[in-house]
Fold these 3 entries.
Entry 1:
Amino acid sequence: MTTRTKDFLKQTPSGMVVNLGKHEGKELLRVAQEDPKYLLWVIQKFENLPEMTKLVIEQALDDHQS
């Protein structure tokens, strides 16, 4: 099974939302706060993840740690 990683995040009026996986439907910043290890795993696991998606995830993780 192939995961369409380009669709991992979705822009909504309230912000970025995780669009795949166990946190589907949750706001990205909430996932960064509640389960940062999951987002780190996504970045490492999916080599074909678009660079912009990686940057957005990394920024969410950085914002949470600040």
Entry 2:
Amino acid sequence: MNYELFQLINNLAGTYTWLDISMILTVKYLAGCFAALLLLLLGLGIYYKDKTLLKTSIHTIVFLGIILITHSIIGFIIQEPRPFVTHTVHLLIPHAADSSFPSTHAMAMTAIALPIFATYKRLGTILLTGTIVTGCAKVFVGHHYPLDIIMGILITYLLFKVSQNYISSIIDKLLHHPKYNIFRVLANIKQCVRLIKKSQAPLRDQFNIKG
């Protein structure tokens, strides 16, 4: 059933040029857009001192790290050949012949989408939709079986439900800690930079250095 469903999707490759290009672009760039968005949210949270946005961003980064480690462990234990290794497929993008199960894209993108969805439903829905589209695209270009995508999303979802409250409570404590509060840390860094600039001012004046 897994291979039959793979054939059903992968055999569409080469039918329409616009579809091939769309799937290739999705596979190549959408995951990167997810990562860029995550960094943007983190930056906005810090800049505007928005604790909700900052908490969501940090939670997402921590959970993404957990998922990538989990993926590496599963991939090491379960050595599932990719479709193009054992079958004749429409391979639109060259790929290393490493383990196919579970999909890195599916797990990583779901790991970014779920914590954001938990707080920002509209944005999270868009990200989850993008995750599913990318999963289909990975099958379309010949990189994964459908089960690689489905299980990648399912494993990530289960781990999120198990770890959500635990990670959230730790981040809450850090954000409200009087000593390790990230805003206090950033303020201290700015103060250090100012002191360094002040200490360098006499030297610049003495040696007539423009800074």
Entry 3:
Amino acid sequence: IFHHCCLKKPIVKCDLIGLNKFNLVTNVLESVQWPLLKFLRLLGDNINQWIQLLAKIDMPHLKTLQIWGTKLVQQDLSHVSVLCVERLISMRSLSEQHFKDVLLQDQHDWVHIVDKMHPSMLDGFGLEGSSYEQFMATPDAVDLKHLRKTEWVVQLFYSQK
């Protein structure tokens, strides 16, 4: 059973395999009442990139669980649900500084993902299109723009709206 949101843009562009992966992750997130469910839904076509980046967040006591991200990307969906749940439950206590460090390590990947998210899709986070544009409006160097966008992603990630 696909969520109704999967019929809307941009998720409608996903291939069937991508949609199946998306729904698996969505179901897992819902089962632990993950607060970033909307964020994952908004990523749509970028769900695989999100999974790969999430898997890169190294938490010592969860090193053995990193394989879930790899399996999911490789379309081997067996035996990953429990690992996903454990991983995501632990992710809820991820510190903002740790997340920011991870963002900076893979800055260009994250920026690429955020670039694909239309500003109008961010209303639910209290980060309307105008807010995003104002946040990014700066005459500074490209590097600083990327850094500002990274900061914006952190704000988005920790938004509780």
